[in-house]
């Protein structure tokens, strides 16, 4: 057996006593095999009840391989440097903490940790692999630096975290791969800087979060924020975030679900924002930073509220009044053209808020957008319906047209008075009453059957009958809709 160095003896003594040992810059490096041996050996708790590995300021050479080991003692590394990967794959530590450390990769696939895992203020050069890991407490990546530009800086697919995943101030070069991960508490990326240009900065397909997903307060993302099918029990928060993916999705929340979604970015996102299929109770947005390309097909919400944050930073938010005209511009930002559902959803939100006039305006615009995709006969018919009754959403237009046709009819019958069918029974001639009787098909004033128009007058009479049925039907339908509401 190789003779132990003085540093090794000090480390082993501190391990059994559970004390922190601080190594100075002049101390020789500590072999990784020594750390692996300490962590893999069974510990006699009767003899060493406070055993723990608490190492500070060490330079560790060579790999630290503790795969599949059951580690019964606390593990703490502070200000340590590792020149080779640390491999914890399949291990079962009580908890694991690296503070202000430098690592060349950390492999922890299938690791099972009863407590917390922390890499706060640490730097990982190479992949941090937590795929299929189970962490009973929190995963702390606050102010950590993960650098693996060629691949996945954090591989955490199917990761299970009982507490929260805390990444405030995280800096990552490479992809954060969170597909299928489950976080019982909150996922926090406030103030993080994520860089993976032209690729996915965050991939979170079917990510499940029991609390809130906070990704704002200075979050800066260059790359796609891809969160399809995400399920969030509380808020999806992007207040104060800067998102840029010029050739892709700056934000993809397709088919996601959340209690509320806050889309009050620090500035207008560069790239496409997709909310297709998103389900939320409330959507908050800021008209000043609406995306230029916005997919809303299938997005459902109960309330739509515009908010403005002073200086584009979180703080007291003011409710902003957005005219329906601007909301219609918001709907027209879809890069795929017309779809009816976003208009129907917006109209329903207006109706739920008691804004029936705005709801009818949205549904009218829906018909007008639909008209642009019809063939010529359909467009002509659409223009006719729009001009006469506003597709049934402006019944007052029908009333105006009734007045117009009444005046025209009265003028026509004054110029070409029709002769009576029976002079003995005919009422006193009245061009206005005759025109009105023809226009109102459900009311009989006794004039429409008393006179027999001829020549030009008979064509005028036929036109008044046809227009009367069309316009009266539109008015009745509009009144019925109002009474039903």
Head-to-tail CA distance between termini: 89 Å
Number of helices: 9
Q: What would you report as the Rg, rounded to the nearest angstrom?
A: 36 Å
Quick check: average pLDDT? Answer: 88
Structural class: alpha/beta
Q: Which outline best applies?
A: rod-shaped
How would a textbook summarize the main sheet? 14 strands, mixed
Tell me the number of strands: 38
Oligomer: single chain
Provide the number of structural domains. 2
Strand content: 25-35%
Transmembrane segments: 399-419, 459-479
Protein name: Pentapeptide repeat-containing protein
Organism: Actinoplanes sichuanensis
Keywords: Membrane, Transmembrane, Transmembrane helix
Question: If you had to describe this structure to a student in words, what would you say it looks like?
Answer:
This protein is of the alpha/beta class and 485 residues long. It has two domains: 54-368; 378-484. Helices cover 27% and strands 30% of the residues. A hairpin with a 7-residue loop joins strand 37 and strand 38. The radius of gyration is 36 Å and the shape is rod-shaped. The chain starts with 5 loop residues before the first helix and ends with a helix. The mean pLDDT is 88.
List the SSEs and their pairings.
Elements: H1 6-17, E1 20-22, E2 30-31, H2 32-40, E3 53-56, E4 59-61, E5 64-65, E6 70-71, E7 75-78, E8 81-82, E9 86-87, E10 92-93, E11 96-99, E12 102-103, E13 106-107, E14 112-113, E15 117-118, E16 123-125, E17 128-129, E18 134-135, E19 139-140, E20 145-155, E21 160-161, E22 165-166, E23 171-177, E24 182-183, E25 187-188, E26 193-203, E27 208-209, E28 213-214, E29 220-226, E30 231-232, E31 235-237, E32 242-252, E33 257-263, E34 270-274, E35 279-285, E36 293-295, E37 300-309, E38 317-320, H3 324-331, H4 340-352, H5 356-371, H6 376-389, H7 395-415, H8 431-439, H9 456-484
Parallel strand pairs: 1-3, 2-4, 3-7, 4-8, 5-9, 6-10, 7-11, 9-13, 11-15, 12-16, 13-17, 14-18, 15-19, 16-20, 17-20, 18-21, 19-22, 20-23, 21-24, 22-25, 23-26, 24-27, 25-28, 26-29, 27-30, 28-31, 29-32, 31-33, 32-34, 33-35, 34-36, 35-37
Antiparallel strand pairs: 37-38
């Amino acid at each position: 057996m190789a003779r132990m160095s003085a540093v090794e003896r000090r480390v082993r003594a501190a391990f059994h006593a559970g004390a922190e040992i601080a190594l100075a810059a002049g101390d020789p490096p500590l072999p990784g095999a020594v750390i692996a041996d300490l962590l893999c050996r069974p510990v006699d708790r009767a003899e060493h009840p406070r055993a723990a590995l608490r190492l500070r300021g060490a330079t560790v050479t060579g790999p630290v391989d503790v795969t599949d080991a059951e580690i019964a003692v606390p593990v703490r590394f502070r200000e340590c440097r590792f020149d080779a990967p640390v491999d914890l794959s399949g291990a079962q530590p009580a908890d694991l903490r690296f503070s202000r450390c430098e690592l060349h990769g950390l492999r922890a696939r299938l690791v099972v940790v009863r407590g917390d895992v922390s890499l706060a203020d640490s730097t990982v050069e190479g992949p941090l692999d937590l795929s299929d890991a189970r962490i009973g407490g929190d995963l702390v990546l606050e102010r950590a630096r993960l650098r693996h530009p060629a691949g996945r800086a954090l591989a955490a697919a199917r990761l299970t975290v009982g507490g929260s995943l805390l990444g405030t101030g995280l800096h990552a070069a490479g992809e954060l791969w969170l597909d299928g991960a489950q976080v019982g508490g909150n996922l926090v990326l406030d103030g993080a800087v994520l860089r993976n240009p032209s690729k996915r900065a965050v991939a979170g397909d079917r990510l499940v979060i029991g609390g809130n997903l906070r990704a704002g307060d200075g979050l800066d993302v260059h790359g796609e924020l891809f969160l399809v099918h995400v399920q969030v029990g509380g808020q999806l928060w992007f207040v104060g975030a800067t998102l840029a993916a010029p050739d892709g999705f700056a934000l993809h929340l397709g088919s996601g679900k959340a209690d509320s979604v806050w889309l009050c970015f620090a500035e207008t996102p560069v790239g496409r924002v997709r909310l297709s299929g998103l389900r939320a109770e409330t959507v908050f947005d800021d008209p000043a930073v609406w995306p230029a390309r916005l997919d809303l097909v299938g997005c459902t919400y109960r309330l739509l509220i515009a908010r403005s944050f002073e200086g584009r930073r979180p703080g007291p938010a003011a409710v902003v009044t957005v005219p329906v005209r601007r909301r219609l511009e918001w709907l027209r930002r879809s890069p795929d053209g017309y779809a009816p559902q976003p208009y129907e959803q917006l109209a329903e939100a207006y109706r739920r808020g008691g804004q029936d006039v705005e709801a009818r305006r949205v549904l009218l615009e829906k018909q007008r957008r639909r008209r642009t995709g019809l063939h010529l006969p359909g467009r002509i018919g659409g223009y006719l319906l729009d001009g006469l009754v506003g597709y049934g959403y402006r019944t007052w237009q029908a009333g105006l047209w009734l007045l117009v046709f009444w005046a025209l009819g009265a003028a026509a019958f004054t110029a070409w008075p029709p002769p009576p069918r029976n002079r003995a029974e005919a009422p006193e001639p009245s061009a206005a009453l005759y025109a009105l009787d023809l226009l109102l098909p459900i009311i009989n004033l006794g004039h429409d059957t008393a006179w027999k128009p001829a020549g030009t007058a008979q064509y005028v009479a036929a036109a008044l009958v046809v227009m009367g049925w069309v316009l009266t039907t539109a008015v009745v339908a509009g009144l019925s809709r109002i009474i039903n509401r």
